[in-house]
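Narrative summary of target 7.
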Amino acid sequence: MPILTVQDIHKSFGGEEVLKGISFSIEKGEVLTVIGPSGSGKSTLLRCIMQLETVDSGKIEVCGDTLVSNDSTGKAVYSGRDVCSRIALHMGLVFQNFNLFPHFSVLRNITEAPVRVLHKTEDEAKQTAFALLKKMGLEDKADAYPCQLSGGQQQRVSIARALAMDPDILLFDEPTSALDPELTGEILEVIRGLAEENMTMVVVTHEMAFARDVADRVIFMADGSIVEQGSPEEVFGNTKNERTKAFLSRFTNSVSMLNR
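Modeled conformation, tokenized:
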């Protein structure tokens, strides 16, 4: 049984349809990367899954619970508050711009939600936080504030914060887009490590080599639709779709230039 199922979801803003019948599913332990040009609806898709946006129609199921489905008129109807809250706890989101609380220390950024939402004791939350900081190579930054950290360090803290809630599915929305190129690699290595630990992940990224190497499956989106999906070998190495070929040609051309 898939851990996440998205079925024919539609979403419009101001009369402009930005998601046009998106459907996919992901199994426990699977890594799905989502690629495509800017404006193709990738981030909106994640926001709909995370309940930061509501869909107009379609169905989303998470860990056996139905978040939203259509009524007899084809309009989206969300489940009750208890179910939606339970579903939210199954998922964590890592934003592209870190979204850390600037007035909280690193330690408090990580422990705040486990204490307030999961009702862990402060000692339990701190024990988890210190273990995650060590995993992220930031064990000496517990008392620092976000403004004292590099962009890469802030993003590692935001990953630790998401993991502290013990999610079943971790979503990444362009986790390296706000970073300098030299800091991108350290974040990608963290995500690779999580993949090796069989963390279920959906990763929206513009890092094509990473998307190809870390994924079990790749989705290519354009103009609000899934144009193609398959294994990395199928999408990157043997695509039949001209739209996908045109997009990926920019990636392969860039690699060729770097290798000269």
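Confidence is low (pLDDT under 50) at residues 254-260.
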